[in-house]
Amino acid sequence: MDASNATLYCAVTLDGVTAAVVYKPVRGERPLWDFPDGTLAGREVSAYLVSQATGWDVVPPTVMREGPFGPGMCQLWVDVDESVDLAALARSDHPDLQRMAVFDAVVNNADRKGGHLLPWPDGRVQGVDHGICFSHEDKLRTLLWQWRGLPLPDEAVEVLSSVRAQLEGPLGEALHELLTRREVHATKARVDRLLTSRRFPEPSPDWPAIPWPPF
Ligand SMILES: Nc1ncnc2c1ncn2[C@@H]1O[C@H](COP(=O)(O)OP(=O)(O)OP(=O)(O)O)[C@@H](O)[C@H]1O
Ligand SMILES: [Mg+2]
Questions:
Q1: Backbone dihedral region of 145: left (phi > 0), alpha (psi from -120 to 50 degrees) or beta?
Q2: In this model, does residue 155 exceed pLDDT 80?
Q3: Using a 6 Å CB cutoff, which residues line ligand 1?
Q4: pTM of the entire structure?
């Protein structure tokens, strides 16, 4: 109810199996000055595809679906561990967050708030709300700066090399269906930059590097 766009809690059913989901119809997207209208759902699905390409599983399953208010993104609902202190989690060195920091640099996440971290009861952490990712302009805005400027783990370098290769194949083709050519090109360029520097990005002085409000 406190969401800025139409964000609905729904159920999906197939063959007698029901799951809770978040559904964000394209029609419910609030216009933004810095992103083209009607593209946020496609960015959410794109973020899921990149998460799958990393193998890190940092985003709950997300697809485009025709729902009661037209096409939109549909994402599996995660029953989070409510006892987790998100402020403490966001500052921690949890390995899932370290991976998420690399993922956010790839997708150019402009909105990694504390409330967008979902702590699973089993200790894993996933992230949500990727509607303002993939701008062709650098906009990385996140709470996860604890690794800024540090060398990337070897595993991250391997994963980034794999993602770079996948961007030339079916992953790139799938993103072209959802994003502009310039945005897909910029995604490849961001991966190239990370593979060249082999370091976590640093906050830029050119734009606010921390989301507001942060939670
Ligand atoms: N898949 C999910 N599983 C569990 N909780 C979720 C999921 N997606 C979103 N939420 C919860 O719902 C809140 C609102 O969702 P989200 O941030 O994606 O929507 P929004 O329209 O961008 O809202 P806001 O403007 O508040 O950021 C999230 O902060 C999170 O607490
Ligand atoms: Mg949000």
A1: alpha
A2: yes
A3: 2-5, 7, 22, 60, 75-78, 115-116, 118, 128-129, 131
A4: 0.96
